[in-house]
Amino acid sequence: MESVGGVMSKKFITSGTVSSRDGTSLIKIILKEVTSNKYLYIMALPVALYYLLFHYGPMYGAVIAFKDYNIAKGVLESPWVGFKHFQTFFESRYFGRLMRNTFFISLEQLIWGFPAPVLLALLLNEVRNKYFKRTVQTLSYLPHFISLVVIAGMIHDFMGRDGLITDLFTLLGGKRTNLLSVAGYFRTIYVSTGIWQQIGWGSIIYLAALSGIDSMQYEAAEIDGAGRLRKLLHITIPGMLPTVIILLILNIGNMLNIGFQKVILLYNPLTYETADIISSFVYRTGLGGSFQYSYTTAIGMFQSTLNLILLLSANRLSRKVSETSLW
Amino acid sequence: MKKILNYISLILVLSLLSTVLIGCSQGVQTTIETSKGTEDTNEEVKTPINVTYWIAMGGSSSAVVSSYSEVLCFQEIEKRTNVKVEFKHPPAGGTAAEEQFNLMIAGRDLPDIINYNWLVYPGGPEKAIGDNIIIKLNDIINDNAPAYKKILDDNPHVSKQVLTDQGSLAFFGGLNLGRYKGSSGLMLRKDWLDDLGLDVPDTIDEWTNVLRQFKEKKESTAPFTTIMAHIGNTRNMFNGAFNTGYDYYLVDGQVMYAPIEPGYKDYLSLLNEWYSEELLDPDFASIDDKTRKSNMLNGKSGATYGAIGGNMGAFLDQATTEGYDLVMAQYPVLNKGDTPRFTLSSNELQIAQAAITTACKEIESVARYLDYFYTDEGRKLQNFGVEGVTYEIADGQPKYMDLIMNNPDGLTVAQALSKYTQSNYPSIGFNNEELYLKQYYQEYPQQQHALEVISKYGDEWGKHMMMPPVSATPEESQELAALETEIKTFRDEMFLKFIMGTEPLDNFDQYVEQMKKMKVERTIELKQAAVDRYNNR
Fold it and tell me: Do A292 and B132 touch (CB under 8 A)?
């Protein structure tokens, strides 16, 4: 969705520059552009509106990060306090731990969670039996549609002292305990259950990319005597690579945005050591009793800034290395 | 393509038709209602006053009604006071109510009445008046709320809780003036105790012995089960035996913070012993409440802390084990014969507090409507419903009829109470009425006994040791909130580490030092300032 907006604005700007060079009135050019592509614009309109209303509109509220926001006084009337809230957060005893946990959970999620749907898509692509393929797809989508609360409940049951997974774990020589109470296991549990839940759904876009590859290429390769592995390496993977890279960049841009829901549903004070992340801390600070809007906004803003930096650097890196980039 | 178009137009036509039809039928209904309405006005002359009322629905209510306007007692009060109320309910669950409340305040989209725990409004009810959200009621109740005024005048300790530090009256507060101010405690399997020939434990040593025997002879793998949300910092359990609370509490008017008190170390070392001996549920830190409940039912555990209604009653209902029985134990002490001091109680002022907002045009009528809950008829209506429908008078006392106790539609007692009355959920007026509680718990004598046991020593705690309903100033509340998140995080982690032995108890002093570095003394100071202001009311 974001890329749609990007493409649009780029097009718009280009036509603008063209117009001034030609000397024709800008408005005329815009009108011509709009009328000639009116269906495209009509289709893009809801998306643009959505972003304006729900993403750009509320942004002015972010100023409360620099204010002592008081619900009765409102955004404009609340007094300015500068970087007070940022300072409080940086000086917090838990700042280091929150950063570390947020970073490591994100990183592990990226390292293990990102390639998983790509692999599944590649595997499914090689399957010849249509019914088998459909069954696997449907079954792997299923967990995506289960509410997170239910998923967390299932994880609690499976990983409890007498849960199924704990049984397996004990069979393999582990000590019988509630797996969710061991700080060292938290990230693994978090990431692996995330893969289980999202692998099928995530693979859809790659399957779409794969179906876009021209079958003539495969035929030509077969005539040249390429085997399955060769075709995979030289046609399938390069064919889906642009999609993979775009999604990777987007994923990196969202890397630190780990939802707090799953963390707060799974963690407890025993696993805070590895599980407490920025957003769960914000949740406890912001909603645990008193609503500290300004402080939590400041933390959220800090996190978004980090995300932006990550996104920009990933994009730049990818442009250098692979020529595929968002803009 | 043409076929598809045909289908689409057919669907469109049908949907148009149906809206027309619905429109017609609604039209017919409205005319009937209006004609009824005119009849009524002819009889009563007075036109009803319309007001809006924002209130979060009780848990058991939302299961049986979609709005309080369907609840019998509210319908009846409307009739009797001639005030027609339109209820606005926030979505149930989580912090939805708080979020909607904040949105309402920020957007200045105020109904006439807001029912909320005004003590948690940043800066307290006084600030809410200063912010021009709600109005000061001191003068208004003189003329328009005689019943509420009389209660406040007759009970100085109640009016102290209700008024702000500056003496403003901000709301009609739900009150608990009865003997019973608590509804949960430590319960054990009575049938196990009887089998083993043991008495209900009083002292810590007796408890240790009982739990040990449960483990050895009853093959209980988690003799005492609990969850972090209970044993963590919200309930007095075994801490009282070591002369310490669980959070902030008062000793001779001085605010104490239990987790840094010397007694707390002894308390932790007991829990540490129990944990290493596997008398305490080894998974208490990570299990949820559902697991705790099933532990109590399936024989894994023989003791827990829980509510008389929601736990004890439910366990007795659901147990399939032959002879399953429960008993409530007194708050434990260290030496036989000591009197438990750290028990359970609540303030007279409850969390339901209805305030009249600055948007209200009909202040006097609204005050009269809210005052009705404090009259004798209102009290009966709120707690028992309508005579002849939900209750009858037996031996001069209201007694619930079958509609409540044996509901023909299969509702549980709690659900039926929520459908017809406001007795089992914090409401303005009178809460936890003795006559309601006794009947609610009448199914099991164990519950009635439990109520007596936990209320026996509630006074000392309730009147002298428990934190009173103080309110912090806006600056105080902001500072407290910032400090408390970190302190609580540290406290919870260390609590578990000490109990599980990953942190030796010898490090308790360092732990206290660290707490002090995190400015725990400042939070005590802030609480003390609020308590001092409260005492000067």
Answer: no
Closest CA to B157 of B347, B376, B430: B347
Calpha distance A282→A293 (Å, rounded): 10
CB atoms B283 and A92 under 8 Å: no
Contacts of residue B131 in chain A, CB cutoff 8 Å?
Answer: 70, 72-73
Torsion over CA: A181, A272, A253, A42 (sign): positive
List, in order, residues 6 or more apart from A192 with CB less than 8 Å away. A112
Q: Which chain A residues have a beta carbon less than 8 Å from that of B133? A: 72
Using alpha carbons, list the distances in angstroms from residue B399 to B279, B405, B421: 44, 10, 13
**Alpha-carbon gap, residue B380 to B478, rounded angstroms:** 41
**Closest Cβ opposite residue B98 in set A72, A180, A291:** A291
ipTM of the complex: 0.72
Domain boundary assignment for chain A: 1-36, 84-321
pLDDT of residue A21: 54
- Cβ-Cβ contacts under 8 Å, A280 against chain B: none
Tell me how far apart the alpha carbons of residues A35 and A32 are, in angstroms, rounded to a whole number.
Answer: 5
Query: For residue B486, which residues of chain A lie inside 8 Å, CB to CB?
Result: 92-94
Cα B412 from Cα A293, distance rounded (Å): 41
Q: What is the pTM of this model?
A: 0.79
Tally of residues, chain B = 537
Cα of A281 to nearest chain B Cα, Å = 8
Neighbours of B502 (CB within 10 A): 12
A–B CB contacts, 8 A cutoff, strictly below:
91
pLDDT tens over chain A, length 327 residues: 344 444 444 444 444 444 445 556 888 888 888 888 889 999 999 999 999 998 888 888 888 899 888 777 778 888 898 898 899 889 888 899 999 999 999 999 999 999 999 999 999 988 888 899 999 999 999 999 999 989 998 998 899 888 899 999 999 988 888 898 888 999 999 999 999 999 999 999 999 999 888 888 889 998 988 888 888 888 999 888 888 988 888 888 778 878 788 998 898 888 999 999 988 888 887 765 566 788 888 988 998 888 888 888 888 888 887 777 777
Burial of A38 (0-12, 13-18, 19+ CB in 10 A): exposed
Distance CA(A88)–CA(A282), nearest Å, equals 13
CATH number, span A84-321: 1.10.3720.10
Task: Report helix, strand or coil for B73.
Answer: helix
Contact B283 A156 (CB under 8 A): no
> Is B175 strand, coil or helix?
strand
The set of residues, in sequence order, having a beta carbon less than 8 Å from that of A256 and lying 6+ positions away, is A102, A103, A106, A278, A303, A306, A307, A310
A127-158 burial: b if 16+ Cβ within 10 Å, else e? eeeeeebeebbeebbebeeeeeeebbeebbbb
pLDDT > 70 in chain B, percent: 91
Least trusted range by pLDDT, from B19-33, B35-49, B142-156, B264-278: B19-33
Instruction: Determine which helix (DSSP H) or strand (DSSP E) holds B306, and give its type and residue range.
Output: strand B303-307
Say if CB B400 and CB B350 are below 8 A apart.
Answer: no
